[in-house]
Amino acid sequence: SAGISRVRNAISGEDSNELKQINELVLAHQTLPLNERGEVDTRSEAGMACCTKFLEVLVATAARLGAEASDRSYRKEFSRNYRILFPDSKRRYRVDVLEASLEQLDCFWVNGVQFKLCERVRNAGDALTEAWRDLGDQLRRWAPGRRGRSAEVRELLGRVHASWSRFECAYIRELIKIEEQARGIVLDVI
Predict the structure, then answer these.
(1) Full-model pTM
(2) Counting CB atoms within 10 angstroms of each CB, which of 38, 43, 171, 173 has the fewest?
(3) For all residues of the chain together, what is the average pLDDT?
(4) Residue 42 has pLDDT above 60, yes or no
(5) Diameter of the chain by CA atoms?
């Protein structure tokens, strides 16, 4: 009965809104197309659209569950162009940041010059990729109506957010540095 269900939810610390939100996240995760390596397709138009929708649901789920949010005040230090993409310190996830982590890039070519990403960026990317995969594993195992698991999802969402923030900070700072170096090379040539 509904009364027994409410008592079970109260004992487990879960409410039906949390469970509904997690179920929405699970459904959004199931729509993510995969590439030939079995990773989320972040390159095709359809893949980007599905991933963007999933990331929106991820933000809503983290908020609904009260998942811990990391400080993102570092965004104030970004160059003007990146502050347009990251306008505040709210929890925001961008597909291109996820793609950079999953692709495990170690260098960029700009104007014919190779720029290597520092070890801190690569390590932060590895941590985000691991947290992302753990989240995917958890969502694939999620059974609708199964109680006592929202705390696990909440903790995992906090871990994803913390690793995302560390990677985003390190990665964007490195991109800014690379852009400045590339601009210097072009000016030297002129």
Answers:
(1) 0.85
(2) 38
(3) 87
(4) yes
(5) 77
